[in-house]
Write a structure and sequence with these properties.
The complex is a heterodimer.
Chain A: E1 3-14, E2 17-28, E3 32-36, H1 43-50, E4 58-63, H2 72-79, E5 82-85, H3 97-105, H4 114-120, H5 136-148, E6 154-158, H6 166-181, E7 185-190, H7 193-199, E8 202-207, E9 210-215, E10 228-234, E11 237-243, H8 246-257, E12 265-267, H9 271-281
Parallel strand pairs in A: 3-7, 3-8, 5-6, 6-7
Antiparallel strand pairs in A: 1-2, 1-4, 8-9, 10-11, 10-12
Chain B: H1 6-23, H2 25-45, E1 49-51, E2 54-55, H3 56-87, H4 89-94, H5 100-130, H6 138-162, H7 169-186, H8 198-204, H9 208-220, H10 236-257
Antiparallel strand pairs in B: 1-2
Helix pairs in contact in B: 1-5, 2-3, 2-5, 3-5, 3-6, 3-7, 3-9, 5-6, 6-9, 6-10, 9-10
The chains are: A alpha/beta, B mainly alpha.
């Protein structure tokens, strides 16, 4: 495996606001990496520096071996290898899906076939519809199609499923996995914890411009070893107990009730619980 | 696939710009038909002759052709680009390997086409309904061609530069249109330039539209009319020099201030 994105000591301030305050990251080839954090945590600034949209104050940044601040011809060659799916755009309403996608294909040296990309994002039936007639979810799929038409090695996805219904989100996740399976590395920013859990190989939590932790979703914040909550009904009373050994407790209860435990529920901390605890703890 | 060049992408963008433009019916109508409506109104109201063998319509068509350069370049781009900035079009393009120059080549193609349609419609309507005389010498046609090329280039560049002035796409039209309309009044499009107050003439002389209208008059009005201009002659050299100077100013301004993203 090789490192696709490496960041060390990244800093960016706006006046006295330290938006990014010493971020270190290493993202490996072929992984889906999610960057989580509340609004104003430095998420967008970090990603936009990696995308080459913003300058940085300090730190070393390499994306596909290049400094994203590289301009002109070298910068264009670098952009040929990345795909960016920005937050909510509403442009090209007067062009059909096919017209937009096939036009963007012309910007790249080794673009994919526009029809195949449209198929991949599930817009084949809408290929000849104007952009402004698409639903929110279809619009987002078009954004993705435009982001991946250049056959990128690295894809930036910014809040990709905001405003999706649950079914559309699941279909979208399938698409993201497919892109990863084709060899792309994906950096995802999201507000949705379930999205990070479903998609990401690793997640980083950022708050107040600093990375708090980088881990797999299952291990984040000591989640795997956190206490489980066991709850059950005892007569008319609903009881619950936190336990490091829930299996043992359930066994005891089972013996006590002579088999089935009424309304038994064993719950581990969700990623969301852990996450809220993490960012809550560092709130100023 | 072969490596795309800035020019080949720019030409593809031009095609796309034209396609989008033609699909926005309101803006096609506004940009293309509004000058014809003005011509119809002014041509009907002022049907008198302003000099030996020169009707007001003849004078007005010259002014409207100069205005056409400003409408299709400066006004169109200074309104369109802020909207594209708001929609995220520009930021998305910035994230692709498309060279920046391709975007501007595309805009220049759009301006050129709309400018040519505009000039053609004005001349056709002028000849058909208002007895406007077309130039008869090759020299005058050549002068017109030179004026259209330089004037349109200047107007395009200034439109790109000015696109950073409106704070939002929604407000762009409110910021840009008054600038154009005031300049039209000051520059002798709607009135005979030499009839305007002296101070107004002097303010107008700073800006390129006054020189574009004067240049257009030197094409469409008989040379005998030149004596009635401010300087007593057409000032062709000065006309081209001042338009070219504004082109340079616009270029520096645009390069320094162009933003791909809304702040």
């Amino acid at each position: 495996m090789s490192t696709v994105i490496s960041v060390s000591g990244l800093r960016k301030s706006y006046g006295s606001n330290h938006a990014v305050d010493g971020v270190d990251l290493a993202i490996e080839q072929g992984e889906i990496f999610a960057l989580l954090g509340p609004n104003g945590a430095g998420k967008t600034t970090t990603v936009e520096i990696l995308e080459g949209f913003r300058d940085r104050d300090a730190g070393d940044v390499k994306v596909l071996g290049f400094d994203p601040a590289t301009k002109a011809r070298a910068g264009q060659a670098w952009r040929d290898r990345i795909g960016i799916v920005l937050q909510s755009t509403a442009d090209a309403g007067d062009l059909t899906v096919y017209e937009s996608v096939s036009h963007f294909a012309k910007y790249y040296e080794n673009s994919k076939d526009p029809r195949e990309v449209i198929e991949l994002v599930g817009l084949t039936e809408k290929a000849d519809s104007l952009g402004r007639t698409l639903s929110g979810g279809q619009r987002r799929r078009l954004d993705v199609a435009l982001g991946i038409i250049g056959n990128p090695e690295l894809i930036f996805l910014d809040e990709p499923t905001t405003g999706f219904d649950p079914e559309a989100r699941r279909a979208f996740w399938q698409l993201i996995r497919k892109l990863r399976d084709e060899g792309a590395t994906i950096l995802l920013t999201t507000h949705y914890l379930d999205e990070a859990e479903a998609l990401a190989d690793r997640v980083a939590v950022i708050n107040s411009g600093k990375i708090i932790e980088i881990s797999t979703p299952a291990l984040l914040g000591g989640r795997a070893t956190s206490l489980a909550t066991v709850s059950w009904r005892d007569g008319t009373e609903l009881r619950s107990e936190k336990s490091a050994n829930p299996t043992q407790l359930v066994n005891q209860l089972s013996t006590q009730f002579g088999g089935e435990v009424p309304e038994l529920n064993v719950k581990r901390a969700s990623l969301e619980d852990i996450y809220l605890e993490m960012i809550g703890g560092t709130h100023e | 696939m072969s490596k795309p060049t800035a020019l080949s992408i720019g030409i593809a963008r031009g095609g796309l710009e034209i396609k989008q433009f033609m699909r926005q019916r309101e803006s096609v109508v506004f940009t293309m038909l509004f000058p014809l409506i003005l011509l119809a109104i002014f041509g009907s109201v002022f049907s008198n002759s302003i000099a030996e063998g020169v009707t007001f319509s003849q004078y007005f068509v010259a002014g409207m052709i100069a205005s056409g350069l400003v409408n299709t370049g400066f006004q169109q781009l200074a309104i369109m680009i802020p909207m594209e900035r708001d929609f995220g079009t520009l930021k998305r393009l910035r994230g692709t390997p498309m060279p920046a120059s391709s975007y501007f080549i595309g805009k220049a193609i759009l301006v050129t086409l709309s400018m040519l349609i505009q000039v053609f419609l004005l001349l056709a309507a002028g000849v058909a309904f208002f007895g406007v005389n077309l130039p008869t010498s090759a020299d005058k046609w050549l002068l017109l061609a030179a004026l259209l090329v330089l004037g349109s280039a200047c107007s395009t560049i200034l439109g790109i530069a000015f696109s950073n002035v409106p704070k939002s796409g929604r407000g762009a039209s409110a910021v840009v249109s008054p600038v154009v309309i005031v300049l039209q009044f000051f520059s002798g499009v709607f009135f005979i330039f030499t009839d305007l107050p002296h101070w107004m003439q002097q303010v107008a002389a700073i800006f390129p539209l006054k020189w574009m209208t004067q240049g257009a008059r030197s094409v469409f009005l008989p040379d005998s009319f030149a004596t009635r201009e401010v300087a007593g002659n057409w000032e062709t050299g000065r006309t081209f020099a001042i338009i070219a100077a504004w082109l340079v100013v616009g270029l520096i301004w645009a390069v320094r201030s162009f933003k791909w993203e809304r702040d």
